[in-house]
Specification:
The chain has about 120 residues and is an all-alpha fold. It has one domain. Helices cover about 40% and strands about 0% of the residues. It contains four helices and no strands. α1 packs across α3. The N and C termini lie far apart (about 80 Å).
Length: about 120
């Protein structure tokens, strides 16, 4: 059998409540990750050599930029994308008040009320 491992895969660093409760994966995907994730991670990191053709296909598709057709490679690739640091895009610039000529919103010189 492919992706055999003695221990269940858990990543408490990224999923404090467990992979199954994270909401990022379906029930089927989380089950496959928990069952085969340790072997997949060892293959990905090069700590283990592929035991059969399924694991060889997994590695080839995981490390290529082509379309992934292997279900195990799809799930593990999704896992790798979820644990990546998220990029934050901001629509403002730092120090914009210096460039705009102010930043003092105290109301200026007119203390009259609007009627």
């Amino acid at each position: 059998m492919s992706f055999e491992s003695e221990k269940q895969f858990n990543d408490f660093q990224h999923f404090a409540r467990g992979i199954r409760r994270s909401g990022e994966f379906s029930i089927r995907e989380s089950g496959i990750l928990e069952q085969c994730g340790t072997a997949m991670m060892e293959l990905h990191l090069g700590q283990r050599k592929p035991a059969d053709e399924t694991e060889k296909v997994f590695l080839e598709q995981l490390h290529s930029d082509d379309v992934i057709t292997d279900p195990y490679a799809k799930i593990f690739k999704k896992y790798l994308q979820v644990i990546q640091p998220r990029r934050l895009h901001r629509l403002c610039t730092v120090g914009a008040d210096d460039e705009m000529g102010g930043g003092d919103f105290s109301g200026g010189g007119d203390d009259s009320s609007i009627e």
